[in-house]
Amino acid sequence: SIASADMDFNQLEAFLTAQTKKQGGITSDQAAVISKFWKSHKTKIRESLVNQSCWESGLRGLSWRVDGKSQSRHSAQIHTPVALVELEFGKRGQESEFLCLEFDEVKVNQILKKLSEVEESINALMQPA
Amino acid sequence: MEGPGSREPMLDAKSEVTDQLIDLQWKLGMAVSSDSCRSLKYPYVAVMLKVADHSGHVKNKSFEMTIPQFQNFYRQFKEIAAVIETV
């Protein structure tokens, strides 16, 4: 119940106190142990619960390098840099799959623009209400 | 997630084995509740990549990232942009 409700410490104290007062509930020693356990493990427990609720592919890794591509046929196209990005994906408990993508400078900037939109949204979300 | 130089990409820089990104769609979601956790309150970034291989065959790949993972993802692309500009 504690993890499910993601109780903060005040809620935790109130909940545990109520439990000690109940018939067949816990002793105050047990309450103290539970309280200590929750305080030190809350983050890890929460992370674990969050992971359990995610069944889409997650991003497991990202590697990249930039190559300078040279083409001799058209002098205007000599030395076109290209970024090679390898993305590693995986679903919970499953083997990774890889995607290898190639981007030129224009493409990289297009992606950056989209990612900055995501960041703006995140900032808007994190604003205090 | 790893940065440049810490791991060589698995595949060579040949156009036969790298795909082109056609489109990237994103969504910022908030997981509210689940059967294992009633009070999730967990924001995540969902991304849909539309990629084409060398034969023109198009496929979609979707995945999710936590906020810290997204920030790392974004940071890596900024690094890529900085490098590609100087090459």
Comma- or semicolon-separated keywords:
heterodimer; A: 129 residues; alpha+beta; 3-stranded antiparallel β-sheet; 3 strands; 47% helix; elongated; B: 87 residues; 1 helix; 38% strand; flat
Task: Describe the structure in your own words.
The complex is a heterodimer of chains A (129) and B (87). Chain A has 129 residues and is of the alpha+beta class. Helices cover 47% and strands 23% of the residues of chain A. Chain B is of the alpha+beta class and 87 residues long. Chain B is built from 1 helix and 3 strands. The interface between A and B is large, with 51 and 58 residues. Strand 3 of chain A pairs parallel with strand 1 of chain B. Chain A: One of its GO terms (molecular function) is protein homodimerization activity. Chain A: It holds the Pfam family COMM_domain.
Q: What is the fold's blueprint, element by element?
A:
The complex is a heterodimer of chains A (129) and B (87).
Chain A: H1 9-21, H2 28-52, E1 58-69, E2 80-90, E3 97-103, H3 105-126
Antiparallel strand pairs in A: 1-2, 2-3
Chain B: E1 19-31, E2 42-52, E3 58-66, H1 67-86
Antiparallel strand pairs in B: 1-2, 2-3
